[in-house]
Each structure stands twice: as structure tokens, then as C-alpha cells.
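hi support,

uploading two proteins for the ticket. first:
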Amino acid sequence: MSERPDPQTLLCFRLYAASHAFTRFYKPILEPLGLTYPQYLVLLALIREDGRSVGALGAELMLDTNTLSPLLKRLEAMGLVSRRRMPEDERRVVVGLTQEGKRIAERAAAIPDCISTCLDMDPQALQTLIDTLGRLGLKLSETTPPRTPS
């Protein structure tokens, strides 16, 4: 039997811990904007490309409809986005930023630069990390998990 792994040495634990640390780090930054982290991501996606279908937004942010729909309803209730059904296809819903949504999204769009400065990491090292995590995510999504050991 091999040595029992220390969670601190596992990639999955390090990613989990970093994700939680990021969530805690972002919370006080997003609170003045009245946003949660997932709402922030939606606004960033829409400020880049406004007027997108719910499906396209979900695909980019890797959120399923059951998660994205209530999130969009909350953003709509906050007056930040509008949702409209397309007349040519009633099943298709397009999401767009309102004027207030654009104002908040513009402020939110400045956050990544602020975070990079706060982290005081070499920009090239940071980009390498982002690229590596992107490749890891893609590989994980394309790989069938192994069976649980007996």
C-alpha cells in the first residue's frame, strides 16, 4: 500500500484552497458594487459582448441553465440586465446590460488590473498560470475519471 497522501500536496486541494481564497479576497471588492462573484463574471462577459443568448453566456462562464437563470433574474431585479425572448424563436432569450448595468460593469472591468497589482506577481508568471489552468480545465473536461479504487 502506498503512503497516504497529504491534502496539502494534492493539486485538487491547492486549487480548491486558492478558489476559496479568491472568493474571500473578492468579497470586499465586490460588496460596494452590490455584486456576488458569479454576478461579477456575468457583467464582465456582457461588457465584452453585450446582447448574448443565455446559452452562449452559460457556455463561456461554464454555468448550467439551472444556475444561470436565477442569477440573471436577480441581476434583472437589480436593474443591471434585461432579458428578452427573440420573436423568431421564443425559446431563445437574449441578455443585455441596462444603462446602470453598463455603469457597474465598467467599474467591475477595472478590478482584474487592481487584483494583479495587489498580488504583486510577475505578469508573465501570472499569464503562464492562467494558461496552465486553462489547459488543465480543458484536459479534465475531456478525460473520463478513473474508477474509485477498491
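and the second one:
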Amino acid sequence: TAIPVVQQLSHLPIVADPSHGTGRRDKVLPMARAAIAAGADGLIIEVHPQPEKAMSDGAQSLTPDQFSETMRQLRRVAAAVDRTIAGPAA
């Protein structure tokens, strides 16, 4: 990932997009884990209550339950690399 390189070159926060970056729901979690471990300051993750009926980006959208599980796992990854994730714990 280029996240550490970009952080050295910029003072701006680095936000990763594992949804659009992969285009596949089954790849969002592994890409998000990698981004957090690499030092991303934020993530953009698409969520839709019925991804199969979404007008766009359904193939990469997580359901709310999948998003909750993703956040649970990302908090564990963040803790393993001495970081925290802001927001309410689920």
C-alpha cells in the first residue's frame, strides 16, 4: 500500500476507500484491515440495507450487519497496531 509513502509526502489525512478500491463486497474487509494496519486516517465504506437492489455500487456495498462486523474486526486490527478507531463501539 502507498499509505505510508503518501503520509510522508503530505500533511493531509489519508483516507482509504476499500469499497471502490476493490469493487467487491468480499474484498472490502481485507482491504480495510490492510489500510488500518498501514496507517490510514480514515475509511470510506459503502453500506446499503439491500445491496442487491442498490441503484449503484451494490456489488461493493456491505449490509448494516456486515458493516458492524467489519468495524468489530477493524477495532481489533487497530488495537494490534497500537491505534484506535473513533466512533461508538458496536
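thanks. also noticed: The CA atoms of residues 33 and 47 lie 17 Å apart.
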